[in-house]
Specification:
Structural class: alpha/beta
Number of strands: 14
Radius of gyration: 28 Å
Strand order of the largest sheet: 3-4-2-5-6-1-7
CATH topology of the largest domain: Rossmann fold
CATH class of the largest domain: Alpha Beta
Number of helices: 22
CATH superfamily of the largest domain: P-loop containing nucleotide triphosphate hydrolases
Low-confidence stretches: 13-19, 240-246, 335-398, 584-592
Mean pLDDT: 77
CATH architecture of the largest domain: 3-Layer(aba) Sandwich
């Protein structure tokens, strides 16, 4: 179904809108009792607007093309009708043998989102006994293991299109009895280069399959998917919901390149941001450079990038949502969703990397064991080859996971601030980044650092090429946000009050050298390899050893200058001392005092160890029996 595009390269809205009368309770949606019981257990009171419209249409058997903002409950909107259809089919089946089939296929663009969707399916199917089984094909395991799992014919398969294509080619996944296909974050799926895999899937599945396409935006790519899967869909657009948001306070700071580090230091030391923060940077090297910089001031943070193993990335997100960590430094390599000027969708498809076997580059790097990953770490430590050095766009071409993505789809909970340390290159990517905050009725803030053209490359050690056109990109971002009814205001930092911190900035930046960054990347990879699933279970059984699973430990690749950890009172602006004394929920920046035995001169222990025995043959103080 082709539709006319508007000035934003988005299909124009159809007659279907969010103004229809929607059910106000899950009880009125004709769902099975086990699903209603699971909804109560999940503490869902009333359906969100997207759930109230998508679920009835899906239960009626219609193809659906829905657009709703991030965090609006889209996953539950398609999971519940899929589960309802599976339960209804099994209840009507004459024998148990008729019920074994892959009934639903859920396609997602990233591994992280696949794990999240699988958990949502399991949560809603918890009271369905053994009637519903779900299989996630993006887990890091041997293909033979996945073939054995698929041989048991799970009811729901969650995977990236590349993994589905692999199992279709090997005949381990058959879609002959498929009744539902769901494409989550549909506009991203084609942007990740899955167009050939999607065409293969569309050819082998039955024509009568019900399709549900969910997205945060309705762009030209979604129309392409609609022609493949969803003929004559019901279009559901929730424009009113997006316009009434307005809960993200957006600010921008124009500063020099080295002043980015000064400002981020001041923000966390003076606790100007209260709550959890996601810092987006331009590339992997930048990720570790900023972490090492913050370590100089005893500010703990986690890194999240495509170079880390998928299990480690998922664990970081889970622990972040449990309030274990408060600062995540994330790269945004795969979230540049097209150019906004002249490049067409066809051009972007041609430039997308071809997936021959469905395996990501990270999987090929890791292989079937841990030794190959260690080789990759050694390669980084010895200095990457020229072909792996940064390109003109500042992107690192080291081996990374093409299925990585955190700016869209992943459910980060209770994020107070999105800090764009490096501005994205498109307004669409900016919109998806700030969508990580102000969710579930909460307020949030987005703060972006922008490099003026006259300041570019003035401080080469902290410069990256992607900031060359920051002002032009900011103009596009501002225009796009104004169309959404939002505005970006300048953040009034009084730089004069931060002059006392500048000498500390210089000391810290000198310690974070290029060699220290390379060593940090190697060390992080090796540490994450040790944190396997078996060790994780062991540490969960031994809570005292849980500290070994933390992701915000010091990398110690750069020499830490002890005096930088403590802020003298004379450096603080007025009223800052009182702010430092308040507890705002951050992970403690200082180590808790341990019960250590006192030591005397020379490091000898004093007290607590009992009287030390003396060898009379080695001492002149031995007592004689004669007088």
């Amino acid at each position: 179904m082709k539709r006319k595009l508007n000035s934003n390269n988005e299909p124009e809205a159809t007659a279907t809108s969010s103004k229809k009368t929607s059910p106000t309770s899950f009880d009125k949606l004709n769902l099975a009792p086990p699903l209603l019981q699971a909804i109560i257990a999940q503490k869902f009171s009333t359906p969100t607007p997207v759930q109230a419209q998508v679920i009835p249409a899906a239960l009626a058997g219609k193809n659906i093309l829905a657009r709703s903002k991030t965090g609006s409950g889209k996953t539950a909107a398609y999971v519940l009708p899929v589960l309802q259809a599976i339960l209804s089919r099994k209840a009507a089946a004459s024998s148990s043998s008729d019920t074994k089939a892959v009934s639903a296929l859920i396609l997602v663009p990233t591994r992280e989102l696949a794990v999240q969707v699988s958990k949502v399916v399991e949560a809603f199917a918890v009271y369905c006994a053994q009637d519903v089984r779900v299989e996630n094909l993006t887990r890091k395991e041997d293909d033979k293991v996945q073939r054995a799992r698929l041989a048991a014919l799970p009811d729901i398969v969650v995977a990236t299109p590349g993994r589905v294509a692999v199992h279709i080619n090997s005949s381990s996944l058959k879609l002959d009895n498929l009744t539902h296909v769901v494409v989550d974050e549909a506009d991203l799926v084609l942007s990740y280069g899955y167009d050939e895999d999607l065409q293969m899937i569309a050819k082998v599945m039955p024509k009568s399959v019900q399709a549900i396409l969910m997205s945060a935006t309705l762009r030209a790519e979604v129309d392409t998917l609609s022609t493949l899967f969803a003929q004559d869909p019901v279009v559901i657009e929730l424009d009113d919901e997006e316009k009434e948001d307005g809960k993200v306070s957006q600010f921008v700071v124009k500063c020099a390149e080295d002043e980015k580090f000064l400002l981020v230091y001041a923000i966390f030391v003076l606790k100007l941001v209260k709550g959890k923060t996601i810092i987006f940077v331009g590339d992997i090297d930048r990720c570790y450079r900023l972490k090492l910089f913050l370590e100089q001031f005893a500010i703990k943070s986690c890194v999240l990038n495509s170079e880390l193993p998928v299990n480690s990335r998922i664990h970081v997100v889970e622990e972040f949502n449990k309030n274990v960590y408060d600062i995540i430094i994330a790269t945004d390599e795969n979230e540049i969703i097209g150019e906004e000027n002249t490049k067409s969708t066809a051009t972007k498809k041609k430039s997308a990397p071809k997936k021959d076997d469905g395996k990501s580059t990270k999987e090929l790097a890791e292989g079937e064991n841990e030794e190959e990953v260690v080789d990759e770490s050694q390669e980084i430590a010895n200095g990457p080859p020229k072909k792996k050095q940064k390109s003109a766009k500042g992107k690192s071409k080291a081996k990374t996971d093409k299925d990585y993505g955190v700016a869209r789809g992943i459910d980060f909970k209770a994020v107070a601030c999105i800090l764009n340390f490096d501005l994205p290159t498109t307004s669409k990517s900016y919109t998806h980044r700030i969508g990580r905050t102000a969710r579930a009725g909460q307020a949030g803030m987005a703060l972006s650092f922008v490099i003026p053209a006259n300041q570019y490359r003035k401080h080469k050690p902290t410069s990256i090429s992607s900031t060359e056109h920051d002002e032009a990109v900011l103009t596009k971002i501002t225009t796009a946000q104004e169309k959404r009814g939002a505005s970006i205001e300048p953040y009034a930092f009084d730089m004069a009050k931060l002059e006392g911190f500048r000498y500390r900035l210089g000391d810290a930046l000198k310690a974070v050298s290029a060699g220290a960054v390379r060593e940090a990347r190697v060390r992080e990879l090796r540490q994450e390899l040790v944190k396997s699933d078996k060790l994780k279970r062991h540490f969960e059984e031994n809570p005292n050893e849980l500290k070994h699973l933390r992701h915000d430990g010091e990398l110690r690749a750069a020499k830490v200058r002890p005096h930088l950890k403590h802020v003298p009172e004379y450096l603080l602006p007025g009223g800052a001392k009182k702010a430092l004394e308040q507890e705002v929920g951050f992970v403690s920046a200082y180590k808790k005092p341990e019960d250590k035995k006192k030591r005397g001169k020379g490091g000898r222990r004093v007290g607590g160890g009992g009287k030390r025995k003396v060898n009379p043959l080695q001492s002149f103080k031995a007592k004689s029996g004669r007088r």
